[in-house]
């Protein structure tokens, strides 16, 4: 019986996605076309998926990383500024990733050395990062690469195609594969999950909790930095605080994936499924002409519905387990 309940839990997200696709295929003209699906995957799904994969790492240790958007933005800022000063694309990319890593290191220091709760620590770096951006851009002015043509590799990040598949989707696939192996197959990944599930037990079992948490914050920031590079290539500029638009959706998608997984924990496949849900809902609502603000309401309602479904399945499973043990 427990196996049947677990299968229902795992299939719940797939059922929700199928229901969303079926509804919009009927209600939204053009939704079910191949061109629209490709547009959603490249323009909506890819960037959010990269950001949400970084959030999945943070949630694996039980932390909600509010600095996600800021890390994306500082990476984009450093990347575009370096290109504007005629740095090579590789050097500029390293500058962008380095800026994101610095933010991750700050989070790690605040949490592991000063003992600040992750939610508050990342909230602080969010505000500090936003202020740095304002100071560096004269109050938040965009930076366009007008005086010099960007290197071909810059455009290829977001607009390139390899074997018929857009470059951002290859980046998502590479990151998803690497993070899946890290979380599911490596000892460090299992230790991170143990820390997230039972922090007290993890500490008393001899795990190097501080080093583990610090590594996760830095790795998450690196993934956000990749999103910042792709975002810069997508808009061919630095757009002030554009990364914050991905924060809440990344959190929601990651929680959807965690809630509906067999073990109720963050996982790569569940996160990607959550991102698909969020992306196609936003696209479908746009096609049927809903106001942007109502789109946000509908997206929030979807998150509530899927989480409630997963919670209901979880309660049923726990009740049956209790009955069997009794």
UniProtKB/TrEMBL annotation:
Provide this UniProt record's keywords sorted from A to Z.
Cell inner membrane, Cell membrane, Membrane, Transmembrane, Transmembrane helix, Transport
Please state where this protein is localized: Cell membrane
As for membrane topology, the entry says: Multi-pass membrane protein
Q: Per the record's keyword annotation, is Glycoprotein included, yes or no? A: no
Q: GO: which molecular function terms?
A: transmembrane transporter activity
Question: According to its record, what are the GO cellular component terms?
Answer: plasma membrane
- The highest taxon in the source lineage is Bacteria
User: Do you know which CDD domains this protein is assigned to?
Assistant: TM_PBP1_transp_AraH_like
Q: Which InterPro entries match?
A: ABC_transp_permease
Q: Which Pfam families match?
A: BPD_transp_2
Q: TM segments?
A: 12-34, 40-59, 91-110, 117-136, 156-183, 209-231, 243-261, 268-290, 296-314
Q: What is this protein called?
A: Branched-chain amino acid ABC transporter, permease protein
Native source species:
Burkholderia mallei (strain ATCC 23344)
């Amino acid at each position: 019986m427990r196996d049947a309940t677990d299968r229902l839990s795992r299939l719940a997200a797939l059922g929700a996605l199928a229901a969303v696709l079926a509804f919009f295929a009927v209600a939204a003209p053009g939704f079910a076309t191949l061109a629209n699906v490709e547009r959603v995957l490249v323009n909506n799904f890819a960037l959010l998926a990269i950001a949400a994969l970084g959030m999945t790492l943070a949630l694996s240790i039980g932390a909600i990383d509010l600095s996600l958007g800021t890390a994306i933005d500082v990476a984009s800022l450093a990347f575009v500024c370096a290109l504007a000063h005629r740095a090579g694309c590789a050097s500029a990319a390293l500058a962008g990733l380095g800026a994101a890593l610095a933010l991750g290191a700050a989070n790690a220091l605040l949490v592991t050395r000063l003992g600040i709760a992750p939610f508050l620590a990342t909230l602080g770096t969010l505000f500090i990062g936003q202020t740095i951006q304002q100071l560096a851009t004269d109050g938040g002015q965009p930076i366009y690469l007008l005086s010099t043509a960007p290197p071909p590799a810059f455009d290829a990040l977001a607009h390139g195609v390899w074997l018929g598949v857009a470059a951002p989707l290859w980046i998502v696939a590479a990151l998803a594969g690497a993070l899946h192996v890290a979380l599911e197959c490596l000892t460090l990944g299992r230790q991170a999950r143990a820390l997230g599930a039972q922090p007290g037990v993890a500490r008393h079992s001899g795990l190097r909790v501080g080093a583990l948490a610090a590594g996760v914050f830095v790795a998450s920031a690196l993934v956000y930095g990749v999103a910042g590079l792709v975002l810069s290539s997508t808009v061919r500029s630095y757009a002030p605080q554009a990364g914050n638009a991905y924060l809440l959706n990344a959190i929601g998608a990651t929680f959807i994936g965690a809630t509906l997984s067999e073990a109720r924990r963050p996982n790569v496949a569940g996160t990607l499924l959550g991102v698909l849900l969020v992306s196609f809902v936003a696209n479908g609502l746009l096609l049927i002409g809903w106001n942007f603000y109502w789109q946000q309401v509908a997206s929030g309602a979807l998150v509530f519905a899927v989480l409630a479904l997963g919670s209901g399945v979880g309660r049923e499973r726990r009740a049956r387990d209790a009955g069997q043990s009794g």
